[in-house]
Specification:
This is Zer-1-like leucine-rich repeats region domain-containing protein. It comes from Picea sitchensis (Sitka spruce). By secondary structure, the chain is mainly beta. It has a single domain, classed as Alpha-Beta Horseshoe (Leucine-rich repeat, LRR (right-handed beta-alpha superhelix)). The protein contains 2 helices and 13 strands, in the order ββββββββββββααβ. The strands form 3 sheets. The protein has an 8-stranded parallel beta sheet with strand order 1-3-5-7-9-11-12-13, with no helix packed on it. Strands 2-4-6 form a 3-stranded parallel beta sheet, with no helix packed on it. A two-stranded parallel sheet has the order 8-10. The protein is globular and about 50 Å long.
C-alpha cells in the first residue's frame, strides 16, 4: 500500500480479521482519525501516522501490544476501552497534546507510563482497571478535571489522588 490513500483523513475498521494494524512511512500521511472496534483477532498496533488526532481501539479482546504511540504529538484523544488483554500503555510521555484518555474495563492494565508529561490531560477514565496499582506522575496533570477510578485498587485511588488533585478536579469517581 505504498503511498496509496494520500488524502485519507478518517479510517474506521469494524469487526475485521486483522491481527496487526501498522502503517509504513508515507501511507495515509494526513490520517487524523483512526477507529478500530470489535476486531477480536487484533493482537498488536504498530507504527501509526503522526497526524493522528484521535485513536480509538475499543472492544478488541485480544489486543495486547500498542507500540505506535511514540511520536503522536498531535493526538488529543486515546480510547482503548474494553481491551482486556492490554497490560501496559508505553511511551505516553510523547503525547504532549493528549486531553482525553479512556481505558475503562481494561482488566489487565497494570501500567500507564509517562503521565507526568501529559500536562494537557483533562479526562482520565480507568474505571474497572482492577490490576492498575498506581498512576505515577498524575500529580503533574494540572488541567485534569475528570477522573474515574471506580473499580481500581482503593489504596491508591482514595488517598494519593485526593491528596494531590483535590484542587483542580471537578469530577472524581472512586
Amino acid at each position: 500500500m505504498d503511498n496509496c490513500m494520500p488524502r485519507l483523513q478518517d479510517l474506521e475498521l469494524y469487526n475485521t480479521k486483522l491481527s496487526e494494524v501498522s502503517f509504513a512511512t508515507g501511507v495515509c500521511p494526513i490520517l487524523q482519525y483512526l477507529s478500530v472496534r470489535f476486531c477480536n483477532d487484533l493482537v498488536e498496533v504498530g507504527t501509526l501516522p503522526n497526524a493522528l488526532i484521535e485513536l480509538e481501539l475499543t472492544n478488541c479482546s485480544n489486543l495486547r501490544k500498542i507500540e505506535g504511540l511514540r511520536g503522536l504529538a498531535k493526538l488529543q484523544m486515546l480510547d482503548i476501552s474494553r481491551c482486556e488483554n492490554v497490560e501496559e500503555l508505553p511511551s505516553m510521555e510523547t503525547l504532549e497534546s493528549l486531553k482525553e484518555l479512556q481505558a475503562y474495563a481494561c482488566v489487565k492494565l497494570k501500567s500507564i507510563q509517562g503521565l507526568s508529561r501529559l500536562t494537557k490531560l483533562r479526562l482520565l477514565n480507568v474505571n474497572g482497571c482492577s490490576e492498575l496499582q498506581e498512576l505515577p506522575g498524575i500529580e503533574h496533570c494540572m488541567l485534569l478535571e475528570y477522573l474515574d477510578a471506580r473499580g481500581c485498587p482503593k489504596q491508591w485511588a482514595e488517598e494519593r489522588v485526593l491528596e494531590q488533585l483535590h484542587q483542580q478536579l471537578k469530577v472524581l469517581e472512586i
